[in-house]
Amino acid sequence: MARPLFMSIFLLLFLALFLLLFRQKKVVYQFLVYLVMMVLLGIVYLFLGSEFLMAFQIIVYAGAILVMFLFFLYLYPEEEFKIQDMRNSTLIKTLIPSLLFVITLILILFTFDVREYEASASVYSVKELAKLIYNQYPLAIFLLAFILTYPMIAIYLLMKGSESDD
Amino acid sequence: MINYSFFAGEKVFYLIASIIILSGFYLLFTKKNLLLAILALEIVFNGINLMFATVSFYYGDLTGQMIVLLSLSVAAASFAIGLILVLNYYRLKRSLNIEGMTELRERIEDGDRDGND
After folding, report:
1. Residue A45: its chain B contacts at CB < 8 A?
2. Which of A121, B74, B83, B111 lies 20 to 30 Å (CA to CA) from residue B10?
């Protein structure tokens, strides 16, 4: 009984944040709305039985990426973000595929019967995920570690290049 | 009487994921700021990740969570590189307007239009 109640509250919260994201004129507030959205998404991951993803989502997105984003916002002058809307013709052109997407989704959700599956809660533990990572996906983890060195090298090289230009 | 079966199943997760994807696409197409475009792509990433996690949970396969884990890490790396590129673009052009990014557009000179020099 608690799960449907919480999920309906989350759905309403996401809809409210979706509207708030477009109503805000200042970019900093849009980023803060997105920050709240990411924390809520982490809690939704908790309802899907993946605690590790919840921790990862909050630490990586709310903790690292968005803080870095907010730090970057202070580097730009405020005039850059004053006029940011597209023309009305562009708005109408993007509204049509968006509405088509929403209508199709609602039709699929309410007309076709999606088969319900009972998830086994014992499978979804961090221990099982770690077993899967280190037994079936060692190459993927190795590649991931390699990919994660890219931004560090890129930041070093680009910052060094910009310092020498100055 | 409210039907709670919709909120108890997997459909509500798909709906939340589609709201997130839609907000990302709408932000990407309606705002003409380069920094907001990167943020919009990150929002789309998150919506797709939620769909992966939902399918993983309801279909009893942990591979979906594994894909989300890899996708989040790669998104974080690409995001950092994107921010550096935006910063350098701003240093060059002193603007973040997407509509002003026309350096790679093909320019046809009057003499080249007929294939002559």
Report:
1. 50, 53
2. B74
> CB contacts < 8 Å between A and B, how many?
194
For B83, the domain range is 5-114
* Window from A2-6, A61-65, A134-138, A160-164 with minimum mean pLDDT: A160-164
For every residue of A103-166, DSSP letters joined together read: HHHHHHHHHS-PPP-PPPTTT-SHHHHHHHHHHH-HHHHHHHHHHTHHHHHHHHHHHHHHHHH-
Task: Give the pLDDT score at B61.
Answer: 78
Q: What is the CATH number of the domain that holds B100?
A: 1.10.287.3510
Which residues 13-32 of B have a C-beta within 8 angstroms of A?
A: 13-16, 18-20, 22-23, 25-27, 29-32
* B53 contacts A48? CB cut-off 8 A: yes
Handedness of CA A60, B26, A101, A107 (dihedral sign): positive
The total domain count for chain B is 1
Smallest Cα distance from B106 to chain A, Å: 23
Is the CB of A52 less than 8 angstroms away from the CB of B11?
A: no
Q: Cβ–Cβ of B83/A68 closer than 8 Å? A: yes
The rounded distance, in Å, linking the Cα atoms of A11 and B26 is 19
B79 pLDDT above the threshold of 70: yes
ipTM value for the complex? 0.79
For A1-83, the fitting CATH number among 3.60.21.10, 3.30.565.10, 3.90.220.20, 1.20.120.1200 is 1.20.120.1200
